Amino acid sequence: DYLSIYCKRDVEIELENFKRFIKFLEDNSISRLCYTRGSTAMAAYLFSHYHKRIYIHNNKEAIDLERDSYRGGRTECFFIGELKDETYHIVDVNSLYPFVMRNNLYPIKYKKITGKISVNAIEDYLRSFSCVAKVLIETSEPVYAGLF
């Protein structure tokens, strides 16, 4: 009997969440409801934000490079220890992806794969294009994304 009541309450809560989600979609003219969250998100993107053509290619080497370049950002403590005698603010950013996509330029169309090239050549490319590159960085400071 306890489990029946518990499960019924769970369903009531989920129904309310679902109704609020539908209302949110309607009130904000975002999209239509699709079968999955992912497809609803894609429909919302296409409906509200899709202003430039997305180019699809089938170059396996380029796809591997693109996938290898996609990773999360830095997560680390900049200070470990006890903080005293000042006012502090806790800032927790869940996702900067929408912000950086809106405010920066990123590659949107595959052009070509180039083998080993010089730093000067990469700099020349970057004057006209956004690039994805696999590079070896030599630095005395660990200020770059690590290998996973």
TrEMBL record:
TM stretches of this protein: none
Its EC number(s): 2.7.7.7
Keywords: DNA replication, DNA-binding, DNA-directed DNA polymerase, Nucleotidyltransferase, Transferase
Reactions this protein catalyses: DNA(n) + a 2'-deoxyribonucleoside 5'-triphosphate = DNA(n+1) + diphosphate
Enzyme class: transferase
Similarity annotation: Belongs to the DNA polymerase type-B family.
Protein's name in the database: DNA-directed DNA polymerase
Species annotation: marine sediment metagenome
Lineage: unclassified sequences, metagenomes, ecological metagenomes
